[in-house]
# Entry
Amino acid sequence: MSELTPFEIEGTLNGQREVLTLILTHLLRNPDEALTKALDERLAPSSQQEDPGAVPQAAFAVEGAQTREIKRILDDAKARVSSGE
# Structure
């Protein structure tokens, strides 16, 4: 498998984000409490925080980026539902 360039990685992630947003938009128009609850739980702050002044480890950086991406996708889907898109 060949290595992807940063542009290919960004394009791939953007494409996946768009597909996920479209799927989530559809699901939010047809509410499913289990899905909404599961997404909300993913966005809840972690209670595993130790020292707020400590330098975060790579695992925490990845977890933070994951949470921000879930929120971004969810916010985009909610905006589409609100606008009737």
